[in-house]
Write a sequence for this structure.
């Protein structure tokens, strides 16, 4: 498993929320083929936060918009 696809620790996963709206975040992968990276998505804010080395980066300025 690559470092970008490591899972978040279960105890941490249970308490983290979207920094914008405080809503629940869902696990997701972004990218194609071998270059997929883990992220946490907020359906309310339509933002996706990167997960780097199993650590969620919950900074709005680094989030990716999921609007098409």
């Amino acid at each position: 498993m690559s470092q970008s696809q490591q899972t978040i620790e279960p105890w941490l996963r249970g308490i983290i929320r979207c920094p914008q709206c405080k809503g629940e975040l869902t696990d997701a992968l972004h990218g194609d083929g071998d270059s997929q990276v883990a992220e946490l998505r907020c359906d309310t804010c339509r933002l996706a936060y990167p997960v780097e080395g199993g650590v969620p980066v919950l900074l709005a300025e680094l989030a990716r918009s999921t609007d098409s």
Residues 19 and 63 are 11 Å apart (CA to CA). The beta strands are 26-30, 37-42, 47-52, 55-56, 64-65.
